């Protein structure tokens, strides 16, 4: 299966980057073809410009500035998001990816006033996330990233398939042991993806 891995951590020597590497290596070990998309390394521009917004609904005009990313998304049969969570949300670069690439005609289409998914070719979805917050604080805040992955993205891709959701909470108080345990958990989950 061809798997698109979206990564959004700017620091090269970070735990987030180690999770990304583990994700990619484990998917490859399982025999998947991996399209490793490191948004910072690729210098993805997350800004939805005035022009982008004006042509947002004009397919295929809306693809001109993000065509290569659209092609990668269309080729994917699996999607893995590997990202830190900042202030109970995705980093701006990842949010900008969704705003600029998941366009009308690409991820959805309006048909008789109803949204129809164009991402049914993606058969599997996973998220590998790190939070500074504890599980309770994330729960108390409504855990928006978890809802986006398990509800919004899942509905766009395939609402009846399970989602692999892996989160290391309380990174502010983590230890080498908790990080190693989570890294191994991610490796195992990606080998079974």
TrEMBL record:
<dbReference type="GO" id="GO:0005829">
    <property type="term" value="C:cytosol"/>
</dbReference>
<dbReference type="InterPro" id="IPR029039">
    <property type="entry name" value="Flavoprotein-like_sf"/>
</dbReference>
<dbReference type="GO" id="GO:0003955">
    <property type="term" value="F:NAD(P)H dehydrogenase (quinone) activity"/>
</dbReference>
<dbReference type="InterPro" id="IPR051545">
    <property type="entry name" value="NAD(P)H_dehydrogenase_qn"/>
</dbReference>
<dbReference type="Pfam" id="PF02525">
    <property type="entry name" value="Flavodoxin_2"/>
</dbReference>
<dbReference type="InterPro" id="IPR003680">
    <property type="entry name" value="Flavodoxin_fold"/>
</dbReference>
<comment type="similarity">
    <text>Belongs to the NAD(P)H dehydrogenase (quinone) family.</text>
</comment>
<keyword id="KW-0560">Oxidoreductase</keyword>
<protein>
    <submittedName>
        <fullName>NAD(P)H-dependent oxidoreductase</fullName>
    </submittedName>
</protein>
<feature type="domain" description="Flavodoxin-like fold">
    <location>
        <begin position="1"/>
        <end position="139"/>
    </location>
</feature>
